[in-house]
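haha ok so turns out i had the wrong file open the whole time. this is the CORRECT one, sorry everyone. sequence first:
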Amino acid sequence: MPSFDRITFDPKVMGGKPCIRGMRITVGTIVGLIANGATPEEILADYPVLEPEDISAALSYAAWRSEEIDVPLIR
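then structure:
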């Protein structure tokens, strides 16, 4: 897995979903906002704890995850 320093996973935060820097803002929230037409500037205004790099990291993680392939184990 590539290094995504800003993406964290903690079962105690949002049920272990990928989040931004341990906060309760998920990658899915960011990707969903972008998909619905929000600009990075609007997201940063709505979530002032975020940094521009957080949005880039969320999009990069989502793109990487969408390319991941599940390979069945042969027994």
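The first strand starts at residue 7 and ends at 8.
again sry for the mixup
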